[in-house]
């Protein structure tokens, strides 16, 4: 049976720790599903071809481009978006705090993608070298900051994470 | 004391929202709105023979399809020529939807409205447009040769021609002991914000009013344009710039076709409609900049002092001229930089091509002008065998020569008079920061190890804060909150922070109590927009002046309440008190209550202002003649002319002898934007500008083929720099306050980008010993330049 664009699937996934579900066609991108079907507009879309990294979310903890994945593909998986990065009571995470402290954002459009990328980066490598920091953020475009303060934010986030009680 | 004052590098107040997904960008709004999509021309130049909609009409979820034929008068008229100029004899603008002829790939022809964007694009794909392709004009020299025309009624493809002259440059050059003549080329790049354009409109049929959200750099002017096009009173149109994901110039153009069509269709259909630009659309349907060819003739003396400079510029303005000739005007005037040119003649010809329109991109013609002047300085130094920095210093305007009149007319129609600066000191700082004097040894040491390194220097002056005006409104409410609004928009510059700093400092309140709104015509209807590094200068001064009015009024009212002379009062931390006596005090929130004589008490605090509560002069009206109720103030700042910021950059690069890769080893910036409101934000602006400059110098270009197809209209192929391409930027500052405005500030937004191509060209030239006359330069370009220089000695230094 051929499914036309109008055929909707009930797509279920865990988003920021909460089970979510919405009907959407098979061709709906994960980015559009999060933004328009679930109303989580913090994930941004900058190019729709996987280069800019604005739409980066964590799929089962790993950074992915949500514009390069269908929502149906992510069904049954666990997604973390920028809305899910802050701690209990909305306290900014160490990565978020570092970006504020170091002026690591200007217009804020690319920021959610950087925050998701850096959150995973520092989880896997809590004490990255300068080269590892650069490499770690080298898949995300920013047109405002010139990156200097983003790199600084990542280093600062590593410090803040190290100070966190374990 | 919690008051954060002017000049402190405080953290930004907009960040917590943006860091948690709480931003409100255009596509984050209107979740239930219908979506618009456009059929755009695949040809650079073609006649439209037929549009067949039949296959599209059955698409599920389709709501409407519009071609030019469907547009009523006003809506379907040519888009406005925003900045007319007497020299623009042949200005031409496009239609919101093309009628007979398309003149660039990407020009909109059909608008589709459907339930969502996927379905709108389904329908758009099924619309068949029959074209008769016409020969396109691509490239500046083809445009100048005019064997083909972009517009049948524009002879020679010339939209504008302008000459400005100070003294007799040709004669001065003829008489000069040394003369050089050469050509320079700069290719196209573009603003490329990560959020494209977008419009969301909703019509309130009962109220006959329209609300439009647009990702724009000017909400007030979009409002006037939409109201005019749709025949609505401006009072029935609200335009709001929500969070804007970068602008860099491209979003100052207005009204875009989509900004007219989406509100029009929303009203016609009585449905909410949204259009969000996708990345390909942004490449082919918004705007580019930079493309110029320059022919330079310069005469100078033995010290390298300019005696006469004659520059002819061919400027590519694309298919239409909605923004006029601001870019080449800026190139031709700001080319002079911090120098006294002797006699100067500049002539530009602004040409039509079958490519995307050209409108200001951060720097707005200055990068090209600075490239021209700085390449000229380097040529002179090489010719005379003198130090490049010394030749520049020999031509500087001196600190005691301000105000300095360059004798030209600037982009605001006002005389090009520099207000203040200290260029010799700035050069001293720059040379010290980069280690200029000891670099020759480093270069030779590197060379002996088979490495090629070079150093470059570039200086610029930037007219910032152009008029005509901006306004500010400050209101203290009865809870002590201070509401600040200004009409210009924000695209990431931190206005909610810096304007709050200014008002907190002027008023004497904690910054936590200050709330700033920008770009919302509901709050402030009169404004110009955010461009030309003007927001801090214009709205910064306007909100300061408005805050001073509020302060004066607060002191007057508090003086009555405390039975004190207002001159003996001051406001600290939100409380008015007698200087040196903390006990005689009244909070601003209470002053706000007293400022508004009430009949009805809405809460306990408000009872103080009711008729039987306060002792008042029974012979005087409760609101004195000339006074107004409320603790608020509004004021405007309108400068007589622009204020001139300046900067100098220096860089060290290394070029790979085999692969011709170009690596920036060091990048140093000394910058003077007068008094800094927030040094952290100024530095951020500089970093971002330099990164865009590096993109434009080494990576970014618009690759049009001869048929007018943009071959690299994606982020896969248009190479914007990642973190790995941008070096650490070393900065130092100089503060020469502007005497023109109350706060002494100058603009900083565009500064970083301006001299980068000039600086890197100079550094690469220095490393390679080969002339660099064209930018951008890729490893491939450098490789071929080396091959040519191998057989052509004139290319070698």
UniProtKB/TrEMBL annotation, chain A:
<dbReference type="InterPro" id="IPR012675">
    <property type="entry name" value="Beta-grasp_dom_sf"/>
</dbReference>
<keyword id="KW-0408">Iron</keyword>
<dbReference type="GO" id="GO:0046872">
    <property type="term" value="F:metal ion binding"/>
</dbReference>
<dbReference type="InterPro" id="IPR001041">
    <property type="entry name" value="2Fe-2S_ferredoxin-type"/>
</dbReference>
<dbReference type="Pfam" id="PF00111">
    <property type="entry name" value="Fer2"/>
</dbReference>
<feature type="region of interest" description="Disordered">
    <location>
        <begin position="1"/>
        <end position="22"/>
    </location>
</feature>
<dbReference type="GO" id="GO:0051537">
    <property type="term" value="F:2 iron, 2 sulfur cluster binding"/>
</dbReference>
<keyword id="KW-0411">Iron-sulfur</keyword>
<dbReference type="GO" id="GO:0016491">
    <property type="term" value="F:oxidoreductase activity"/>
</dbReference>
<dbReference type="InterPro" id="IPR036010">
    <property type="entry name" value="2Fe-2S_ferredoxin-like_sf"/>
</dbReference>
<dbReference type="Pfam" id="PF01799">
    <property type="entry name" value="Fer2_2"/>
</dbReference>
<dbReference type="InterPro" id="IPR036884">
    <property type="entry name" value="2Fe-2S-bd_dom_sf"/>
</dbReference>
<keyword id="KW-0560">Oxidoreductase</keyword>
<dbReference type="InterPro" id="IPR002888">
    <property type="entry name" value="2Fe-2S-bd"/>
</dbReference>
<feature type="compositionally biased region" description="Basic and acidic residues">
    <location>
        <begin position="1"/>
        <end position="12"/>
    </location>
</feature>
<keyword id="KW-0001">2Fe-2S</keyword>
<dbReference type="InterPro" id="IPR051452">
    <property type="entry name" value="Diverse_Oxidoreductases"/>
</dbReference>
<protein>
    <submittedName>
        <fullName>4-hydroxybenzoyl-CoA reductase subunit gamma</fullName>
    </submittedName>
</protein>
<comment type="pathway">
    <text>Alkaloid degradation; nicotine degradation.</text>
</comment>
<feature type="domain" description="2Fe-2S ferredoxin-type">
    <location>
        <begin position="9"/>
        <end position="85"/>
    </location>
</feature>
<keyword id="KW-0479">Metal-binding</keyword>
From TrEMBL, chain B:
<dbReference type="Pfam" id="PF20256">
    <property type="entry name" value="MoCoBD_2"/>
</dbReference>
<dbReference type="InterPro" id="IPR036856">
    <property type="entry name" value="Ald_Oxase/Xan_DH_a/b_sf"/>
</dbReference>
<dbReference type="InterPro" id="IPR037165">
    <property type="entry name" value="AldOxase/xan_DH_Mopterin-bd_sf"/>
</dbReference>
<feature type="domain" description="Aldehyde oxidase/xanthine dehydrogenase a/b hammerhead">
    <location>
        <begin position="20"/>
        <end position="135"/>
    </location>
</feature>
<keyword id="KW-0560">Oxidoreductase</keyword>
<dbReference type="Pfam" id="PF02738">
    <property type="entry name" value="MoCoBD_1"/>
</dbReference>
<dbReference type="InterPro" id="IPR008274">
    <property type="entry name" value="AldOxase/xan_DH_MoCoBD1"/>
</dbReference>
<dbReference type="GO" id="GO:0016491">
    <property type="term" value="F:oxidoreductase activity"/>
</dbReference>
<dbReference type="InterPro" id="IPR046867">
    <property type="entry name" value="AldOxase/xan_DH_MoCoBD2"/>
</dbReference>
<dbReference type="GO" id="GO:0005506">
    <property type="term" value="F:iron ion binding"/>
</dbReference>
<keyword id="KW-0500">Molybdenum</keyword>
<protein>
    <submittedName>
        <fullName>Xanthine dehydrogenase family protein molybdopterin-binding subunit</fullName>
    </submittedName>
</protein>
<dbReference type="InterPro" id="IPR000674">
    <property type="entry name" value="Ald_Oxase/Xan_DH_a/b"/>
</dbReference>
<dbReference type="Pfam" id="PF01315">
    <property type="entry name" value="Ald_Xan_dh_C"/>
</dbReference>
<dbReference type="InterPro" id="IPR016208">
    <property type="entry name" value="Ald_Oxase/xanthine_DH-like"/>
</dbReference>
């Amino acid at each position: 049976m051929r499914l036309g664009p109008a055929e909707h699937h009930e797509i279920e996934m865990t988003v920021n720790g909460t089970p979510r579900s919405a009907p959407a066609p098979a061709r709906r991108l994960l980015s559009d599903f999060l933004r328009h079907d679930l109303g989580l507009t913090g994930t941004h879309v900058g190019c729709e071809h996987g280069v800019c990294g604005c739409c980066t979310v964590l799929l089962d903890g790993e950074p992915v481009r949500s514009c390069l994945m269908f929502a149906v593909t992510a069904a049954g998986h666990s997604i973390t978006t920028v809305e899910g990065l802050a701690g209990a009571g909305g306290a900014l995470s160490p990565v978020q705090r570092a970006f504020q402290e170091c002026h690591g954002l200007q217009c804020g459009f690319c920021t959610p993608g950087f925050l998701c990328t850096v959150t995973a980066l520092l989880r896997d490598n809590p004490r990255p070298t300068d080269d590892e920091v650069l490499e770690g953020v080298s898949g995300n475009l920013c047109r405002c900051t010139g990156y200097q303060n983003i790199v600084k934010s990542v280093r600062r986030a590593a410090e803040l994470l190290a100070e966190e009680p374990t | 004391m919690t008051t954060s004052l002017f000049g402190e590098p405080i953290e930004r107040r907009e960040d917590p929202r943006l860091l948690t997904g709480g931003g409100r960008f255009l596509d984050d709004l209107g979740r239930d709105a219908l979506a618009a999509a456009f059929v755009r021309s695949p040809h650079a130049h073609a006649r439209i023979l037929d549009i067949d909609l039949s296959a599209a009409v059955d698409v599920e979820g389709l709501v409407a399809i519009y071609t030019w034929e469907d547009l009523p008068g006003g809506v379907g008229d040519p888009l406005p020529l925003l900045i007319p100029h007497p020299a623009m004899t042949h200005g031409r603008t496009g239609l919101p939807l093309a009628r007979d002829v398309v003149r660039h790939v990407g020009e909109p022809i059909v608008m589709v409205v459907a339930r969502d964007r996927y379905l709108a694009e389904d329908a758009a794909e099924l619309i068949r447009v029959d074209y008769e392709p016409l020969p396109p004009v691509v490239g500046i020299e083809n445009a100048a040769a005019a064997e083909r025309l972009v517009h049948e009624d524009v002879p020679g493809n010339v939209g504008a021609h302008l000459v400005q002259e100070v003294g007799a440059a040709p004669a001065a050059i003829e008489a000069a002991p040394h003369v050089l003549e050469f050509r320079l080329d700069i290719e196209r790049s573009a603003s490329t914000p990560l959020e494209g354009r977008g419009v969301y409109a909703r019509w309130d049929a009962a109220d006959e009013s329209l609300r439009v959200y647009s990702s724009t750099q000017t909400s007030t002017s979009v409002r006037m344009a939409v109201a005019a096009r749709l025949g609505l009173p401006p009072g029935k149109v609200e335009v709001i710039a929500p969070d804007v994901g970068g602008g860099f110039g491209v979003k100052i153009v207005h009204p875009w076709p989509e900004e007219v069509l989406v509100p029009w269709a929303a009203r016609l259909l009585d449905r909410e409609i949204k259009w969000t630009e996708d990345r390909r659309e942004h490449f082919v349907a918004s705007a580019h900049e930079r493309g110029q060819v320059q022919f330079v003739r310069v005469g100078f003396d033995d010290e390298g002092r300019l005696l006469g400079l004659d520059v002819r510029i061919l400027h590519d303005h694309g298919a239409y001229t909605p923004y006029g000739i601001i870019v080449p005007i800026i190139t031709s005037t700001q080319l002079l930089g911090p120098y006294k040119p002797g006699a100067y003649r500049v002539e530009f010809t602004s040409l039509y091509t079958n490519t995307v329109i050209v409108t200001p991109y951060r720097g707005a013609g200055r990068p090209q002008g600075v490239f021209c002047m700085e390449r000229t300085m380097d040529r002179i130094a090489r010719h005379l065998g003198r130090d490049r920095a010394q030749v520049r210093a020999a031509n500087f305007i001196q600190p005691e020569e301000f105000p300095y009149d360059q004798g030209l007319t600037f982009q605001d129609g006002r005389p090009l008079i520099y207000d203040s600066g200290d260029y010799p000191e700035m050069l001293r700082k720059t040379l010290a920061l980069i280690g200029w004097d000891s670099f020759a040894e480093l270069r030779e040491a590197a060379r002996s190890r088979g490495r090629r390194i070079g150093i470059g220097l570039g200086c610029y002056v930037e007219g910032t804060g152009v008029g005509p005006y901006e306004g500010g409104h400050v209101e203290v409410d009865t809870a002590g909150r201070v509401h600040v609004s200004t009409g210009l928009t924000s695209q990431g510059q931190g206005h909610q922070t810096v304007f709050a700093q200014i008002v907190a400092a002027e008023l004497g309140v904690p910054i936590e109590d200050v709330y700033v709104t920008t770009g919302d015509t509901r709050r402030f209807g009169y404004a110009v927009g955010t461009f030309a590094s003007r927001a801090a200068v214009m709205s910064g001064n306007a909100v300061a002046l408005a805050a001073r009015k509020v302060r004066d009024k607060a002191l007057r009212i508090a003086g009555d309440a405390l039975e004190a002379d207002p001159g003996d009062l001051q406001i600290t931390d939100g409380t008015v008190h007698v200087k040196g006596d903390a006990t005689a005090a009244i909070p601003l929130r209470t002053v706000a209550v007293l400022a508004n004589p009430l009949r009805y008490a809405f809460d306990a605090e408000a009872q103080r202002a009711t008729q039987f509560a306060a002792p008042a002069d029974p012979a005087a009206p409760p609101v004195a003649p000339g006074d107004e109720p409320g603790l608020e103030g509004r004021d405007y700042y309108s400068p007589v002319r622009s204020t001139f910021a300046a900067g100098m950059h220096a860089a060290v690069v290394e070029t790979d002898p085999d692969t011709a890769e170009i690596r920036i080893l060091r990048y140093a910036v000394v910058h003077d934007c007068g008094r800094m409101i927030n040094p952290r934000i100024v530095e951020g602006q500089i970093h971002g500008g330099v990164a865009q400059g590096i993109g434009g110098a080494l990576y970014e270009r618009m690759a049009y083929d001869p048929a007018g197809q943009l071959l690299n209209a994606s982020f896969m192929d248009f190479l914007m720099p990642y973190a790995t391409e941008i070096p650490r930027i070393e900065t130092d500052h100089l503060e020469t306050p502007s005497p023109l405005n109350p706060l002494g500030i100058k603009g900083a937004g565009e500064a970083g980008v301006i001299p980068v191509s000039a600086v890197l060209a100079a550094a690469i030239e220095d490393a390679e010993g080969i002339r660099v006359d064209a930018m951008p330069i890729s490893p491939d370009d450098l490789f071929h330049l080396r091959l040519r220089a191998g057989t052509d000695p004139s290319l070698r230094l």
